[in-house]
Amino acid sequence: MIDFLRSIEFQDPWFLLGLLFIPIMVYLRYFRRPEEQKPSLRIGNVESLVHRRSWRTQVLYFLPVLRWLALTLLILALARPQLSLKEEAVTAEGIDIILALDLSSSMLAKDFSPDRLEVSKKVAAEFVAKRGTDRIGVVVFSGESFTQCPLTSDHRIVQRFLSQLQCGFLEEGTAIGMGLATAVNRLKRSDAESKVVILLTDGDNNTGYIKPLTAAEMARELDLTVYTIGVGSKGMALTPQGKRSDGSYVFDYARVMINEPLLQEIAETTGGQYFRATSAEALQNVYDEIDKLEKTEREVTTFRRYSDEFSTFLRIGLGIFLIHLILQLTFFRTYP
């Protein structure tokens, strides 16, 4: 409602001076001194009348409020209120971003609440919401990799795909090289001004037929920037160690093993940065930092469109005036 009122402009604002008559009418109705009011009949004792004021008498006293409200709305209608609709057309190219997320079973570790994967999905979705007109896609990997969501500017689709991510439906392992290579492949035909991969993992490359540094070299050749994130607390964490017959995971404490030198080298090869996130708050700060680093100026054309709203004020004002007239001539009719 407040935003709506802020968007209202008046084409003929001089008519708004008529609103000054409203407080004058209120003063004349309620605040004049008794000797300035109409003559009244004097009676000796009014004690019997004081306690006999019905609800109709009380409402009648405030009935003119409807007339003043109607007059206010009619004056506003004469001032030609218009709703200003501001629109922006972005003409410059944005950034294409691929989120490459580790889905190995270790992402279910409980050092984050409820686990690393759920926190990573939530923070990534919040990052997507901030990226304006950028195109964003999602690549997932564990022992193998594939594209979960191709590049799109529809961020609601990206967030929906992120919310559906879960561990266990890919071959077990951590193929960082294959995950990065799949992300690079998704961006190689992009003509965006800037192309970025955000690679998040909680382990070390232990499978796959593409080495991580080979994928990093591919990214550099295509002028891609890779930001790497190592997610997981330092020390021991309650981590899946196997599966039961019903498919549920068996948890036990294990040392957090992240190959930070490898992630650091991947980032440096492509001109990016490596970040370590040891908590949910730290992961949020990492994404905030990347959000600040990957900003591109956009040439924006702004124009305004107006829609006349005087008919709304006119209809409501006439409706209130009609209600006032009906009440005055029926339920609250007075006789001289």
Describe the structure.
Helices cover 39% and strands 24% of the residues. The strands form three sheets. Strands 5-4-3-6-7-10 form a six-stranded mixed β-sheet, with helices on both faces. By secondary structure, it is an alpha/beta fold. It has two domains: 2-86 and 306-329, no CATH class; 92-293, 3-Layer(aba) Sandwich (Rossmann fold). It is elongated. A hairpin with a 3-residue loop joins strand 4 and strand 5 (145-152). It is built from twelve helices and eleven strands.
Protein traits:
single chain; 336 residues; alpha/beta; Rossmann fold; 2 domains; 6-stranded mixed sheet; 3-stranded antiparallel sheet; 12 helices; 24% strand
Topology of this protein?
Blueprint: H1 2-6, E1 8-10, H2 21-30, H3 47-50, H4 55-62, H5 64-78, E2 81-90, E3 95-102, H6 116-129, E4 135-141, E5 145-152, H7 155-163, H8 176-187, E6 194-201, H9 212-221, E7 225-231, E8 236-243, E9 249-255, H10 260-269, E10 274-277, H11 280-293, E11 300-308, H12 310-329
Parallel strand pairs: 3-4, 3-6, 6-7, 7-10
Antiparallel strand pairs: 1-2, 2-11, 4-5, 8-9
Helix pairs in contact: 5-12, 6-7, 6-11, 8-9, 9-10
